[in-house]
Structure formats: C-alpha cells, structure tokens
Design a protein that fits this description.
The structure is a single chain. By secondary structure, this protein is mainly alpha-helical. The protein has one domain. Helices cover about 75% and strands about 0% of the residues. The protein contains nine helices and no strands. The longest helix is centred in the last third of the chain and has 33 residues. The chain starts with 8 loop residues before the first helix and ends with a helix.
Length: about 190
C-alpha cells in the first residue's frame, strides 16, 4: 500500500496559503522598514547576515546585496563576510522557493520561467548552484521553480547556500583587495 505524501490534498492547500502569506509579509516588512535596514551594517557579521537575508528576500524590489558584501569585505575579514552573507542570502531565497511552493498561480509563466523550470527539473542541484553563484536576477525564478517542482527544502537550501557563499567570497575579496589597491594609489 502506497502512503500519501504529507503535503497533499488539504495539507498542501494550507501549506501553500501559509507560504504565500509569509512571502507577502516579508516583502511588506522589507518595504516598510527599508530606511532602517542600512543601520544593520554597524552590527558586524550578524548585521551582514541580516542585510543579506533582507536583500535576497525581496521578489519585487531588488536590493544590491553583492554591493554590501563588496563594501563589507573591505572592513571585515572576507571569509567571515562571505559566510555571513551567503547564509543570509540562502535563507532570504526562501521567499522565492515558498512563492513557487505556494502554487502555480503566483508564478509568472513567461518563457524565462519555463526555460529555468525545465533546467531546474533536469539539472536540479547543479542548476541551483550555478544560478546562485552567478550574479543575476534570475535566481528568484529558479527558487520559485524549485519550490513548484517540490525540490526538497534542505537540498535547495544547501545548494543555494554553497553558490551564494562562493559568490559572496568573490565579492568580499574583491572589496578587500580594491580598498588596499586604492590606498596604495594615494600619496
């Protein structure tokens, strides 16, 4: 006898509604408190984590999280910045994943989404890793595709974290090196 998946029927509908409500809540809070977000950078690595989480939790209003990572790489140790920013970015991408999980009605069905959904379905974790590493606005679409395809959440988070952390490491070291380079140019 084959057992029914936990998220099916009524449970799936409730989970989708709760996921959509969570996404709307997070985006609304980020929009309302956008002016206070910059203050978080004064809190060091936890502030970097929170700023990166917020920057990646937006689906409609993109916030340049890599610019923050670049700047903080000049102030703090680049590896610590990358780890904090990568973890925050991966968790922030839950909004895209949950938007996809919440149902096909909230996902744009354009050609870009169809292509990325096909790639995500075919390549899975490697697609998540690649799109998380490459600076691009398409990762929200990949996260939505992963959620719609019911990619296991731990797998999605791990590969998103790995790709985001590697990307943030590049930007943090670039910020660290560029500040040193600029300081050597000054007399």
């Amino acid at each position: 006898m084959k057992s029914e998946p936990f998220f099916s029927g009524r449970r799936l509908k409730i989970a989708r509604i709760l996921a959509l409500a969570f996404v709307i809540l997070v985006i609304s809070l980020i929009f309302v408190y956008r002016d206070r977000v910059q203050e978080l950078s004064s809190y060091g690595y936890p502030g970097i984590f929170l700023l990166s989480l917020l920057a990646n939790a937006t689906l409609i209003f993109p916030i340049p999280g890599v610019a923050l990572t670049f700047a903080m790489g000049a102030v703090f140790h680049p590896i610590g910045v990358a780890l904090a920013a990568g973890a925050g970015a991966a968790l922030g991408e839950l909004t895209g994943y949950l938007a996809g999980f919440s149902g096909e009605a909230v996902i744009p069905h354009g050609p870009a989404y169809q292509r990325i959904q096909g790639w995500t379905q075919h390549y899975g974790k490697w697609m998540i890793l690649a799109l998380a590493f490459i600076p691009n606005p398409l990762f929200d679409v990949a996260g939505a595709a992963a959620g719609a395809l019911r990619m296991p959440l731990p797998r999605f988070l791990f590969w998103a974290w790995l790709g985001k952390t590697l990307k943030m490491l590049v930007f943090a070291y670039a910020g660290s090196v560029s500040i040193d380079w600029l300081l050597h140019l000054l007399p």
